Amino acid sequence: MKHKLLDIARRVLILLLVVWTVVSLVTILIELVPGDPATAILGDAATPEALEQFRRKHGLDRPAFFFSYAEGEGLRWNGAENRYVDYWRLILRGDMGNSFRTDRPVRELILSRYGATIQLAIAALLVAVSIAVPLGVVAGTNRGNLLDNALSVVALVGISLPSFVVGPLLIYVFAVWLGWLSPSGRFGWSSIILPAITLGAALSALLTRMVRSSVIEEMGEDYVRTARAKGLNERTVVYKHVLKNGLIPVVTILGLQLGVLLAGAIITEKIFNWPGLGLLLVEEGINKRDYRLVQGCVLVISVTYILANTLTDLLYRRLDPRIRVS
Questions:
Q1: What is the DSSP string of 124-166?
Q2: Whole-angstrom distance between the N-terminal and C-terminal Cα of the chain?
Q3: What pTM did the predictor assign?
Q4: What is the pLDDT of residues 278-304, one digit of tens each?
Q5: How far is it, in rounded angstroms, from Cα 16 to Cα 23?
Q6: 3-state DSSP call for residue 202?
Q7: Which long-range contacts (CB under 8 A, 24 or more apart) does 47-54 make?
């Protein structure tokens, strides 16, 4: 019990440390970007009074950090009265602030897109696993022959093709030419098929190679020879014994890739006009200098990424009893 409590405390501390580090780095980077958010949002035609009112409303008239630098004055200590401390005070109260552009709560904007991002990420993972596991097992159990070489070439091609090539190609074939699926938007089950395949294709190619390597490695273990000596058929040996142990490194990659899918699906979301968190971060946050929205999106993505990796660790322990014992 004591070890479990210490493990939980350690994970919570790591979560808090990572979130603080990521959000702090993003805050520093967006503050270093040249330009005035007030001018970027209100436009060059805005009056000085309107600009000053905007800065005062959103706290942009206050120092960004604990210290600032000005030519002729050098470093100047600002104390705790700065935007960085103000933001964390809001976070501790469960408030992410309001968007600079729309004045809507950032939490509301993120929640309106978060479901679409999770849906696309999970669908892409399912596509990747559905393709990678059967192909990887077939390639691993047929090591060195023509089928293995053919599947290796297919996997290499899948890794090499970027999403901005696969996406438009799928749209042309299945939406324009055949007319089977929706080309863009989020209007039903059919609209997620093409973006999920686009996002999951490269991941499936990577996972296929990993499953193949794991199966080849496990096939030479003693327990496989023992299972065969007991008279078990090859299918049972492969799918009940070899695959369970061979999936352990694959599960680790899946946990890491979930975070990549959450933050790196921007190109796919753009191609298919998918209303996800990545598109919100880039188009409404970074491009329009909406600091609060950028901070909120990064905070949610980082927390989701850490939680996904925590679940991966738990599943990893489930698959490998040696980790539970240690």
A1: HHHHHHHHHHHHHHHHHHTTTSHHHHHHHHHHHHHHHS-HHHH
A2: 14
A3: 0.79
A4: 888 888 888 888 888 888 888 888 888
A5: 11
A6: helix
A7: 54/100
